[in-house]
């Protein structure tokens, strides 16, 4: 009875333990019992792929090729050169601002060498002297302000020296018609061009180079005309503060210049009309320009006008007009060289329209001269011969490369033949024609009109 009770207890214990999913004493294994496998825990969700990091493009890596290739006057000003940071240079009229750093040195009876930052109240604190207000003090007056403050405490034997060490770091908004409007970092002494260049420069198809505004709140503190800088080298220095806005206004009227000019560009003007005199100052026509052609594109009818340079000053231009400077010159004289066996000069200046007979009257022949075998070499004929040779070689290339073959063997032969012919064509392309005109046997050669550059 006792043995039966013991076996029963062991079986009940094992069943309970195995049902619970554990068998710490190995009873179930000894009895051949096994627990049901517990369902596997659900696998944790696969972590989400992290979002791709967005990297901003530094201003100096901006592609300025659009600006450099534009025909708008001033667009090539923004090529990334102004965006590169350089050493801060302080001008004498720079006004000390909050956050600027001032290097103060005091020696004599009392010594101090400290780099001090202008606090939010506009002061720098000097031991034994106290706060000294420098906010708005011009750079050239900073030394005097610190020196007077020191004298109020130290009557004698104390000397001071103060200078600006670093300008306040600022962040400036650049907006309007620029390639990349945004918020850009620099210092209060950096040029306006630095911030506009960081923004990719003025969009040449939308932005104005004549009216760039510097705003602080609702106030317009300065208006910059970049034509003053491009044409006269005048650039006002504007001291920027944190949160200032540089706004490039939309472009106004435009006129295109072509032809014989140093600046064949598109120019902007703000008034309703632009005088030709003002445009000439910007475009700078070349010395050989004698006339100007004006193409009127406004309205539904396209009109052309033609003026001499002397009378063009009274012409008024409108938005969309095109101006082309030309050289309307009539030939007066030509030069002809005479080479070979003769006793005269080698170069002659003749009036336009002179003939070969007129030239021969000025040439003194020697006893060895063969007057019946005269040769003429002409530049215009040389050019036409070159064009005809190139056209013939091009036609030969097309014929060789497009020839068809009926069999594989024939194709191999044609390939070998084509390689040889193409080599010959390449050599023939380097041939320079002489421009020779055959006149030796002509009975009317004396009436042949001469051209400038004939030999």
What does this structure look like?
By secondary structure, the chain is an alpha+beta fold. It has helices spanning about 1-20, 25-30, 65-70, 140-150, 190-200, 225-230, 275-285, 355-360, 380-400, 410-430; strands at about 100-110, 110-115, 125, 130-135, 160-165, 170-175, 180-185, 205-215, 220-225, 245-250, 255-260, 265-270, 275, 290-295, 305-310, 315, 320-325, 335, 345-350, 375, 435. The protein contains ten helices and 21 strands. Strands 7-6-10-8-9 form a five-stranded mixed beta sheet, with helices on one face. Strands 12-11-17-14-15 form a five-stranded mixed beta sheet, covered by helices on one side. A three-stranded antiparallel beta sheet has the order 2-1-5, covered by helices on one side. The model is unreliable at about 1-20, about 25-30, about 35-40 and about 55 (pLDDT under 50).
Q: How many domain regions?
A: 4
**How many beta-strand elements?**
21
Report the helical percentage: 10-25%
- Characterize the main sheet: 5 strands, mixed
| Distance between the ends | 146 Å
């Amino acid at each position: 009875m006792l043995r039966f009770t013991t076996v029963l207890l062991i079986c009940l214990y094992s069943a309970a333990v195995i049902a619970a999913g554990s068998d710490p004493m190995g009873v179930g294994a000894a009895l051949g019992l096994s627990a049901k496998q517990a369902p596997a825990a659900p696998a944790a969700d696969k972590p989400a792929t992290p979002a791709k990091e967005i990297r901003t493009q530094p201003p100096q890596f901006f592609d300025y090729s659009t600006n450099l290739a534009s025909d708008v006057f001033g667009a090539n000003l923004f090529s990334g050169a102004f965006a590169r940071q350089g050493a801060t240079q302080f001008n004498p009229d720079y006004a000390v601002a909050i956050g600027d750093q001032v290097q103060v040195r005091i020696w004599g009876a009392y010594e101090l060498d400290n780099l001090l930052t202008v606090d939010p109240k506009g002061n720098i604190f000097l031991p034994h002297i106290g706060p000294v207000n420098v906010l708005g003090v011009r750079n050239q007056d900073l030394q005097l302000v610190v020196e007077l403050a020191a004298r109020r405490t130290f009557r004698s034997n104390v000397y001071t020296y103060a200078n600006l060490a670093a300008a306040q770091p600022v962040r400036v908004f650049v907006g309007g018609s620029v390639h990349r409007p945004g918020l850009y970092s620099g210092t209060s002494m950096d040029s306006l061009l630095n911030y506009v260049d960081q923004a990719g420069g003025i969009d040449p198809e939308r932005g104005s180079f004549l009216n760039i505004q510097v705003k602080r709140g609702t106030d317009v503190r300065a208006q910059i005309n970049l034509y003053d800088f491009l044409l006269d080298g005048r650039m006002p220095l504007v001291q920027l503060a944190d949160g200032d806005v540089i706004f490039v206004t939309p472009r106004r009227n435009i006129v295109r210049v072509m032809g014989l000019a140093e600046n064949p560009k598109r120019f902007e003007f703000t008034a309703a009309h632009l005088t030709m005199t003002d445009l000439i100052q910007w475009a700078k026509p070349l010395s050989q320009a004698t006339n100007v052609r004006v193409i009127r594109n406004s309205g539904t009818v396209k009109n052309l006008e033609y003026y001499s340079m002397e009378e063009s000053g009274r012409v008024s231009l409108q938005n969309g007009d095109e101006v082309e400077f030309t050289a309307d010159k009539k030939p007066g004289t030509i030069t002809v060289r005479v080479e070979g066996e003769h006793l005269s000069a080698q170069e002659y200046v003749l009036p336009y329209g002179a003939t070969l007979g007129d030239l021969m009257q000025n040439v003194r022949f020697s006893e060895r001269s063969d007057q019946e075998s005269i040769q003429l070499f002409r530049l215009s004929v040389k050019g036409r011969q070159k064009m005809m040779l190139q056209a013939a070689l091009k036609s030969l290339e097309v014929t060789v490369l497009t020839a068809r073959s009926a069999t594989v063997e024939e194709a191999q032969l044609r390939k070998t033949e084509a390689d040889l012919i193409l080599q010959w064509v390449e050599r023939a392309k380097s041939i320079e024609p002489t421009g020779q005109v055959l006149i030796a046997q002509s009975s009317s050669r004396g009436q042949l009109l001469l051209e400038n550059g004939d030999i």
